[in-house]
Design goal:
Layout: E1 2-3, E2 9-10, E3 15-20, E4 36-41, H1 51-61, E5 71-75, H2 81-100, H3 113-131
Antiparallel strand pairs: 1-2, 3-4, 4-5
Helix pairs in contact: 1-2
């Protein structure tokens, strides 16, 4: 059971883990032992998540979400299976916690009267500066 918050927990059967060989440091051991973890999680089949959280999770996941909707996290930061397993679970929990936070709705605002006046004053000032650069017209 992966505890996300006080009220939300992901059951163990919703998370599938596969151990594969990892690249990087490890000497000869890296060719013999499968220490990297490939974690798969299907948010659509998880009843603990609401529809809004699933949508935000799919947006946050980006390339980690496959076309079939499976979230894949690969962890090979550490040299032991257990550390990589915990790292993958922690990353999944962080991603779900980030998806739980609903974005604040944007309220449309208008510029104040003072802001409009300041903008027009600076435009007029720039126009006057550029006007002095023009060649004088012949007066007849």
């Amino acid at each position: 059971m992966l505890q996300i918050t006080d009220k939300i927990a992901i059951p163990d059967d919703a998370v599938e883990m596969e151990f594969v060989r990892a690249g990087g440091p490890g000497g000869q051991n890296v060719n013999k032992v499968s220490t990297a973890v490939r974690l798969r999680f299907d948010p659509a089949r998880c009843a603990a998540l609401s529809d809004a959280v699933r949508d935000r999770l799919s947006r946050l996941a980006g390339r980690r979400l496959s076309r079939t909707g499976i979230l894949t996290i690969e962890a090979q930061r550490f040299r032991t299976q257990e550390q990589n397993r915990q790292d993958a679970l922690d990353r999944l929990a962080e991603l779900i916690r980030a998806a739980l936070i609903a974005p604040r709705p944007r309220r449309a605002t208008r510029p104040s009267l003072g802001a409009k006046r300041r903008r027009l004053k600076t435009k007029h000032h720039r126009s006057a500066i550029k006007g002095t650069r023009r060649t004088p017209e012949d007066e007849e």
